[in-house]
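Annotated sample (chain length 186).
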Amino acid sequence: IGGAILAIIVLILFLKNLRTTMFIAISIPSAIIATFTLLYFTDLSINLMTLGGLALAAGMLVDNAIVVSENIFRHYQTGKEPEEAAIEGAREVAGAITASTLTTISVFFPVVFLSGLAGQLFWEFALTVSCAILASLLVALTVIPLLASRSLNRKDGRTYNHKKSYFLTRYRWLVQKVTRHPWWII
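Output written by the structure step:
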């Protein structure tokens, strides 16, 4: 719970959008409930290793949801209807977040096949993290688009606004310099 609350606070500070943060905040308990369901079917109990896996995964649970919700909002700002923005935004990043999720699982899942004392100690931990990350992918591709399509309204600042902030201006200048002198940068 503490990890989820800290993740939500960080999201509010960096995204500066309460609606997007709300979508992502709802995805955390949804993914954790789905994880408990998967753990139930693998006959794992709630113990120190499964709770440790959930605590570690709490920060990773929001990654997929952030990518999907930000892409949906980008499509929405370009003038698309909420339903169309949700479908296109989720479809556009589905392959990327699936690849990212499977890459992360490929790091943790082989621990399930360890033998001996290490295998007995970390089997539940690795399985919990893998289930949690799979659940976050499922939530990001189903729940987030549903919430976005239902809660974005038609009068919510739909025009894409290119405000030139100091940071954006400096960032563009830096990118231009870097692309002009790639060997110097390397």
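Annotation: The two ends are 43 Å apart (CA to CA).
Annotation: Residues 67 and 119 are 33 Å apart (CA to CA).
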